[in-house]
Design a protein that fits this description.
Blueprint: H1 7-18, E1 34-37, E2 40-44, E3 50-54, H2 73-90, H3 94-110, H4 115-126, H5 130-134, H6 141-147, E4 179-183, E5 192-196, E6 201-202, E7 212-213, E8 218-220, E9 227-229, E10 231-233, H7 240-265, H8 270-273, H9 277-293, H10 303-336, H11 351-374, E11 378-382, E12 389-395, H12 399-422, H13 432-456, H14 460-491, H15 498-501
Helix pairs in contact: 2-3, 2-4, 3-4, 7-9, 7-14, 9-10, 9-14, 10-11, 10-12, 11-12, 12-13, 13-14
Length: 517
């Protein structure tokens, strides 16, 4: 820059330039006669005109690229011409250009270039004027044609005879957002294919080389160009499925309650007395608790509900199946104790079934306490279980403890089924073992089908499968054991007599001795 003011004004101007909000700082080298910019030396002459020449730092080293360098040959061939043209543009004096060109020739020859090639290059450059070399070369076809006073002709592109449009320089169109470029093996770089981003990945710009993965709590939209927040999923009371299961749980809990009231009202009738009243009352309470414990599985999981969900279910169902087991054993003992010489007569009474119920339930309680102490369940936010939802669920903590709890419950169920099955051929005027056999068959079938269904579902449907298994198995026990008795109590009071139960009624003329417990 040529400054026409004094030095102080120039300093103030530089200070003004540096007082900007963009963080840009300017430095100034101020000279009166000569100033250097890169390899150009600018000199002010006596008539206040400017002259330019080549500037070289001291000490001067010959750093030109050697002729035997491993660079491509066309680059090495063009270096002399470009250097001679550069000093031609820089030097404003022909004498200066002549001096520097001779010196440059010597330096090229010292670096292995052939003398006659350098001489030829100098001659080519000498025929050019400095004005021609400094002229701006426009790349606009129309402007260049006008400068040459020549008419502009359209280029005839192959396969473009109709539209005369310039063809694209790649084999495929640009990849839009939601897609990424992938190069084909054995093809040029300009030949690529566009493939859509995978689920959970996006690309939000054209010609993306790779797709970006969404955060774990987000998912990709259908066009794969934006990440969306995942919805939260758990079995809630507001959900139609959760509301339906909660309603069923309450209705199923009212059924054993209603039958318990019926048995209490008809507790002195022969069929109730012969049905082990105390154990039946325990079983009614257990069935009510089984139905109500399913409500713990509905709602947003938290630390408390996760701790008591599976353990409450395991203990309550162990209590329920223990009552059925005790009831089955007492039926067998009742029939076998009719022989006066039988040693089983001493076991008839309430002590044995209560002991069986207590011991079997206590074992399950101990197992659940060990589970809670070693590896308790806890709430878990699973973002990878489902690609479109965040699943809030209870982690069992120890899968082994969970299946041990179910295994113990299955062991009690199988024991009840086997004992009841073996006792099915006892006198049948009122053989409760047949009803227990069928009820345990339904119970075991439900829980065997539960295992593959539970392992094949995800999210809230896994919880729904377990609730359905709880309710259906409870309803199976209640229906198979007690509905036939309710039918006799309410609709067939003529069968609710001691004579009928002992085989003296009109429906059965076989004599059977029944021991009430």
């Amino acid at each position: 820059m040529v400054w026409h003011g004094d030095r102080e004004e120039l300093s103030e101007f530089v200070t003004y330039l540096n007082d900007n909000s963009f963080g840009i700082k300017f430095t100034a080298n101020i000279e009166r006669e000569n100033i250097v910019f890169l390899d150009v030396l600018v000199t002010r002459l006596s008539d206040n005109t400017l002259a330019t020449s080549v500037h070289r730092k001291f000490p001067e080293y010959n750093t030109l690229l050697h002729a035997e360098s491993c660079h491509p040959r066309h680059i090495i061939r063009n270096i002399p011409k470009s250097q001679f043209m550069r000093i031609k543009r820089i030097c404003s004096s022909e004498q200066e250009y002549s001096n520097f060109s001779v010196d440059l020739s010597r330096r090229f020859i010292n670096r292995g270039y052939k003398a006659h090639n350098i001489s030829t290059t100098m001659d080519v450059t000498n025929r050019l004027t400095r004005t021609e070399l400094l002229e701006y070369k426009s790349h606009n076809l129309a402007t260049s044609a006008q400068q040459r006073n020549q008419p502009l002709r359209f280029i005839e592109w192959e396969n473009s005879n109709v539209t005369r449009t310039v063809p694209i320089s790649v084999c495929t169109e640009s990849c839009s957002p939601g897609y990424r470029k992938t190069y084909q093996h054995g093809q040029l770089k300009c030949c690529f294919i566009c493939i859509p981003c995978s689920d959970g990945e996006i690309s939000n710009k054209t010609d993306s080389v790779e797709c970006l993965r969404c955060p774990d709590d987000h998912m990709s939209n259908e066009r794969r160009d934006m990440c969306l927040q995942k919805s939260v999923e758990f079995l809630a009371y507001e959900d139609p499925l959760g509301a339906a299961l909660a309603t069923l749980a309450i209705l199923f809990a009212l059924m054993p309650t209603a039958i318990l009231i019926i048995f209490s009202l008809y507790k002195e009738t022969p069929i109730v007395r012969a049905n082990n009243r105390e154990i039946s009352y325990f079983l009614f309470v257990a069935l009510v608790m089984c139905c109500l414990c399913s409500l713990i599985f509905i709602g947003r999981p938290n630390r408390v509900t996760c701790l008591i969900q599976q353990t409450t279910f395991g203990v309550v169902f162990a209590f329920c199946v223990s009552c059925v087991l005790a009831k089955t054993i007492m039926v067998v003992i009742a029939f076998k104790a009719t022989n006066p010489k039988s040693s089983l007569r001493k076991w008839v009474g309430p002590a044995l079934p209560i002991t069986i119920i207590f011991c079997c339930t206590l074992s399950q309680i101990i197992l659940c306490m060990v589970w809670l102490l070693i590896s308790p369940p806890f709430p878990e936010v699973n973002m990878k279980y489902l690609s479109t939802k965040i699943v809030i669920q209870c982690n069992d903590g120890s899968t082994f403890a969970f299946w041990c709890m179910l295994g113990y419950m299955s062991l009690l169920s199988c024991a009840s089924f086997v004992i009841a099955f073996l006792a099915r051929k006892l006198p049948d005027s009122f053989n409760e073992a047949q009803f227990i056999t069928f009820s345990m068959l339904v119970f075991v079938s439900v829980w065997i089908s539960f295992i593959p269904a539970y392992l094949s579902t995800k999210g809230k449907y896994m919880v729904a499968v377990e609730i359905f298994a709880i309710l259906s198995s409870s309803a199976g026990l209640l229906s198979c054991i007690f509905l036939p008795k309710c039918y006799i109590i309410l609709l067939r009071p003529d069968m609710n007599t001691k004579e009928y139960l002992m085989g003296k009624g009109a429906h059965n003329h076989k004599k059977t001795n029944i021991v009430g417990v």
